[in-house]
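Long-time lurker, finally posting.

We've been working with Response regulator (Cohnella fermenti) and I want a structural starting point before designing mutants. I don't trust myself to interpret raw outputs, so I'm hoping someone here can both generate the structure tokens and explain anything notable. Sequence follows.
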Amino acid sequence: MNVLIVEDELLIRGSIAELLRQSGFERVTEAEDGFKAVEALRRDRFDLVLSDINMPGMNGLELLAYIREQFGDTLFIVLSGYDLFEYAQKAVKLGAFAYLLKPIKDADIQAVIAQAMQELAKKRAMHEQEVAIQIKLKQGTLALRRLFIAELMTKKADAALIRDQIAQYDFSPPHNGFASVLVGMEETHTAGQRLTRNDSELVRYAVENICLEMLENSGYAVYPFQVDDGLGLLVNGLSTEDNPLSARLVPDLSRIRAQAYSYVRIGLSAGIGETTESLARLPHSFATAKRAFARKLVSGEGVYAYRRSEADLSEKPELGSEAEQQLTVCLDRSGGDSAHRFIDSQFAFFYTGTDYDLNDMKQFNYRLILLIQRALRRVDLDPDHAIGEQFALYAEVGSLRRLDDIVAWFHRLIDLSLAAWNDKPTNATHKLMEKARDFVNEEFSPDMSLTLAAERLGISPEYLSREFKRAFGENFSNFVLRVKLEKAKGYLRSSTCRIQEVAQLVGFNDEKYFAKTFKMNTGLTPGEFRASKRQPQSPT
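Top reply, 14 upvotes:
Generated this for you. Predicted structure of Response regulator:
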């Protein structure tokens, strides 16, 4: 407790000061009159003032009035040699805590100061509680505002709804231009170690404060908002057609990058979305900020303002059945060069285009992993054995931060796939050809053909034709013909269908060609075969 004693009589002032110091009060200041007391009050803050009333210059009641006006929380104890009701009444009216009559006993002073200490403790506790409540209310408002702005970034809202909510969240942007900014914190540059969760939160807090301070000093109004990873900022500033806000922010954020590295040794990247003059258009600004931020995949850490590229007019790669078939053919033929060219072609768009964000890149990587796994299964290889377990692959590619590294990683998967194929070429191919043979036998139809079987197995007709001959020493077309003739024999033996109908059931549209082919392979016409199987044979 800091105490000021104001008394023009030196002996009384000194004795009270000595009593307080002996009672444990270390901060005791003395003043000989009201003017000296005011000077002391301007230099320091006091919890308690003990003052005489009758003093030259400024008396005690005038000093009390001054303190009550300037320092409302300071307690004031009146020391008076006059037992006059008028003085006591004025002192009470001005808010004096106590009124003591001289001569004052030590016990009286100690008792009233003890009461004053209790009162001060009570006031301090109440003040701290009020401050805590105000802080919580402020923090609650700021947290709700963060969520509100985050909703503005991701959900379309009409102007009337926005107007109703901005006042509620202490959100009154002063300028006409808005731009969404995404700030990402890269790996720590100290000792090459990853940050812990707590350290990451502290770094994020420091980076946010650096951004707010520097951007606000540059004349912008800045409103942080929640994003899943990194820091989201809604920047509000003057914007014109010739000098859009998004372009003006590039040098400011570049200086912030340098400051963040200097203070917390962290690398930053930032994506700046297109400028808008309407809060209702913030989802577009946010989407373009995410796309601008994704440019760090190609160009590394830096500050990027969104600019639409001509390459965006081209189609994004589609990882559908056609791409799967293309990669399968590459693996079938052990075509290392063609398989690697396939990977390069899939990522070409991402090097030149800007119409994608990090989530698009992540989804594309996952879909490409699935495509490679499906292609491996189609050539009868186990993907987990060939390239690794699916979720481990997701985690591995998800940790990469540069597009070059991602592409190199997929080239490694292709190398592993080709190595697995070359390790077991005969066994895998033979099993696949057995599937082709079973398909013809078990799912025979009149339109059975090389193309149909290849489509069913997900391989090329050329590959099926080549490998079937290698596996069984017979052309696929000859095998299908044999199956057709065996089916025809069955119909001729067990049915009353006409020869023309039997021909159509096994895939021959021309009865004469069917009869000619049947005789060439059996030595009998269809009619002769039917007659021979229906009449009993003579014993020899």
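Before you design anything, note these points.
The domain at 427-534 is CATH 1.10.10.60 (Arc Repressor Mutant, subunit A).
The first helix runs from residue 10 to 22.
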